[in-house]
């Protein structure tokens, strides 16, 4: 079997019915029930999961969305891990980096969910005093983007292989978008995000989160590679893990370097847990001769085994 990498998605692609499809798999539904029985989720999230008519707004509210996405990835993983022989590498995009520690079993599910709840609370609190937003920037050289960001008091938050994500105060972002258009940007994509993650604005949130990490039982698995979001380097111990999870809250993500590391470690089969398939698409474009799919692309998760067998003979 070829080497496999698992990617944990970030926010932005969650959907109202994403938990409903998991009901078809006993491994997923029983896991969610066990988490609800432990009473470790925020009351709002527990009520949302139990409601017959859940409010869509809560699904996209940062303070609750982070918990829900982590729970979704942990739940779907309960089924997926029975279908794949071995995963060599785990990494995640934004929130997904913290989720990767849970899926790889460096953190227990309950510990991960509690930490991510605190992460969301600290980040929401840090962005409550002003109006913030973010946008995707395509087709402008990095050096020009950096210069414009400095001039407009904005920040590059994420380096993707073929685009950047910029964060800052709303008024500053509007100014920078106009400046980027004048500078010849190919495309500007406004994002429905109110928390400027991975920028210096989140420094206080990171410091509070670091204190929370002190008591967490982080045990890095020796036979699994976990990558650091801000550098793409491998994380070897608890000290490195704590630093990685803290720094990524207020430091730009280097997803481009994560994809390079996946390639350098020889992973040829890439699986995105979802929700969404943005990471799988980016990976296909960045790493040639790899097989990259999102679980959202499978109508039935049981088909994953046959797909893995077929691609193992191709890549």
Tell me the layout of helices and strands.
Elements: E1 4-8, H1 26-38, H2 43-50, H3 56-59, H4 62-80, E2 89-92, H5 95-103, H6 109-126, E3 132-138, H7 142-152, E4 155-159, E5 163-169, H8 170-182, E6 187-191, H9 203-213, E7 225-226, H10 238-250, E8 253-254, H11 255-264, E9 269-272, H12 278-286, E10 291-294, H13 304-312
Parallel strand pairs: 1-2, 1-9, 2-7, 4-8, 9-10
Antiparallel strand pairs: 3-5, 3-6, 4-5
Query: Looking at the chains present, what oligomeric state does this protein adopt?
Result: single chain
Number of strands: 10
CATH architecture of the largest domain: 3-Layer(aba) Sandwich
* Radius of gyration computed on alpha carbons: 19 Å
CATH topology term of the largest domain = Malonyl-Coenzyme A Acyl Carrier Protein, domain 2
Q: Give me the number of helical elements.
A: 13
Strand-residue proportion: 5-15%
CATH 4th-level superfamily of the largest domain: Malonyl-Coenzyme A Acyl Carrier Protein, domain 2
Average pLDDT works out at 94
Backbone shape: globular
Biggest pleated-sheet summary: 5 strands, parallel
Cross-sheet strand order for the largest sheet: 7-2-1-9-10
What is the chain-wise order of helices and strands? EHHHHEHHEHEEHEHEHEHEHEH
């Amino acid at each position: 079997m070829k080497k496999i990498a698992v990617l944990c998605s970030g926010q932005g692609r969650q959907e109202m019915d994403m938990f409903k499809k998991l009901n078809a798999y006993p491994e997923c539904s029983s896991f969610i029930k066990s988490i609800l029985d432990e009473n470790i989720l925020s009351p709002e999230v527990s009520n949302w999961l139990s409601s017959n008519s859940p409010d869509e707004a809560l699904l996209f509210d940062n303070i609750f969305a982070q918990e829900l996405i982590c729970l979704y990835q942990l739940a779907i993983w309960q089924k997926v891990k029975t279908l794949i022989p071995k995963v060599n590498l785990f990494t995640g995009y934004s929130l997904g980096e913290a989720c990767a520690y849970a899926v790889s079993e460096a953190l227990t599910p309950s510990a991960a969910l509690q930490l991510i709840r605190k992460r969301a609370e600290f980040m929401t609190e840090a962005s409550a005093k002003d109006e913030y937003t973010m946008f995707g920037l395509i087709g402008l050289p990095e050096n020009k983007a950096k210069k414009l960001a400095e001039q407009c008091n904005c920040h590059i938050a994420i380096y993707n292989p073929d685009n950047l994500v910029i964060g800052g105060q709303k008024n500053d972002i509007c100014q920078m978008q106009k400046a980027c258009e004048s500078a010849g940007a190919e495309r500007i994509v406004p994002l429905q995000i109110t928390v400027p993650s991975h920028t210096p604005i989140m420094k206080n949130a990171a410091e509070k989160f670091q204190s929370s990490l002190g008591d967490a039982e982080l045990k890095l698995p020796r036979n699994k590679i976990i990558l650091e979001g801000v550098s793409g380097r491998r994380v070897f111990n608890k000290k490195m893990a704590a630093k990685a999870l803290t720094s990524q809250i207020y430091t730009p993500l280097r997803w481009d370097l994560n994809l390079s590391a996946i390639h350098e470690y020889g992973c040829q089969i890439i699986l995105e847990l979802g929700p969404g398939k943005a990471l799988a698409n980016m990976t296909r474009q960045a790493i040639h001769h790899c097989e990259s799919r999102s679980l959202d692309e499978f109508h039935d998760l049981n088909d994953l085994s046959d797909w893995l067998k077929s691609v193992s003979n191709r890549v």
